[in-house]
Write a structure and sequence with these properties.
Layout lengths: L9 H10 L2 H8 L3 H15 L4 E4 L2 E4 L1 H29 L2 E6 L1 H18 L4 E6 L12 E4 L11 E13 L7 E3 L2 E9 L6 H9 L3 E8 L3 H9 L5 E4 H10 L8 E12 L7 H15 L3
Parallel strand pairs: 3-4, 3-5, 8-9
Antiparallel strand pairs: 1-2, 5-11, 6-10, 6-11, 7-8
Helix pairs in contact: 1-2, 1-4, 2-3
Length: 291
């Protein structure tokens, strides 16, 4: 049976030996001075003698401490390197993805069986994106059909395909043209897309007015309200394809295309990840097919 020294004390010993100070070691390890000092004393008692001695305002190793350092330092270096390798191998199997709930539920998730059939070794971790997604967030990719949020403009962006925007409503909803202006009783939108109607009018060349604007917390709620005949909604075509095919919605003014409007933002930590590259290739393929 091995009689090992207290292993939890070895990082405290190594950091103190390397930095020559318990205070500096505590700061590096994120511990208190007292906790590091206690671990070193415990290690010294277990090994039968002092490992450090005073040297001016700092500490220096005793001969027995130096013998321990020569063994512990390369051991911890090797363990740290192995841990990083193992973590990288594990992390390489995952893609942390931020995507809106509407795009995830209406477009991405129904297509994921095809991706998993091609790459069963890769797992996607889906997290819902909000109106603002900070650049330093802990994720790999953000996919979006809304020209990507301002917070992501400095991040590497990869075009995946066209984005197509149009007005959708229930088949019998009263959207009428009067004097060159399209008019509807209720216009549906969401808090983070209040400017979308103006942008669509500029892109499409259509003028549109409504008696009332109704704000829904999420885009999928606005689309649901449109299906129920409660107003007109502005949608990217991918999000309403099934509703259009089933006749639940119509797009009376058609769709206006934005080249490369469907994009992915790739975070720096994910640039060289094989799993991320494979997922981007797949996204580009299905988006390019009009999917």
């Amino acid at each position: 049976m091995r009689r090992l020294p207290p292993l939890s004390a070895l990082p405290a010993f190594e950091a103190t030996a390397r930095l020559g100070s318990v205070t500096a070691a505590a700061a590096e390890l994120g511990r208190t001075h007292g906790a590091v000092s206690k671990q070193i004393h415990h290690l010294s008692d277990d090994l039968g003698g002092a490992l450090f001695e005073k040297s001016g305002n700092g500490l220096r190793l005793t001969p027995r401490g130096e013998r321990l350092r020569r063994t512990v330092t390369p051991m911890l270096d090797d363990l740290s390197a192995l841990a990083e390798t193992l973590r990288a191998e594990q992390d390489a199997r995952y893609v942390d993805l931020r995507v809106s709930a509407t795009l995830a539920s209406r477009w991405l998730i129904p297509r994921l069986p095809d991706f998993y059939a091609r790459h069963p070794e890769i797992e996607l971790r889906l997290r819902m994106s909000g109106p603002q997604t900070p650049q330093d967030s802990d994720f790999d990719l953000l996919i979006s059909y809304d020209r990507l949020r301002g917070a992501m403009r400095e991040v590497d962006q990869r075009p995946l395909g066209l984005a197509q925007y149009g007005v959708v409503c229930a088949p019998d909803y009263p959207l009428l043209r009067q004097g060159g202006v399209w008019r509807a009783p209720v216009r549906l939108t969401q808090p983070n897309a209040l400017q979308s109607w103006e942008e669509w009018m500029q892109l499409s060349g259509h003028a549109l007015s409504s008696e009332r604007e109704e704000i829904h917390a999420h885009h999928f709620l606005a689309l649901g309200a449109a299906v129920a005949g409660l107003g007109i909604a502005l949608a990217e075509r991918r999000l309403v394809d099934e509703d259009l095919a089933a006749g639940r919605l119509v797009a009376p003014l058609g769709f206006v295309a934005v080249a490369d409007g469907f994009r992915a933002a790739v975070m720096p930590r994910a640039q060289a990840r094989r799993a991320v590259g494979l997922f981007l290739d797949w996204l580009g393929e299905i988006a390019g097919q009009g999917g």
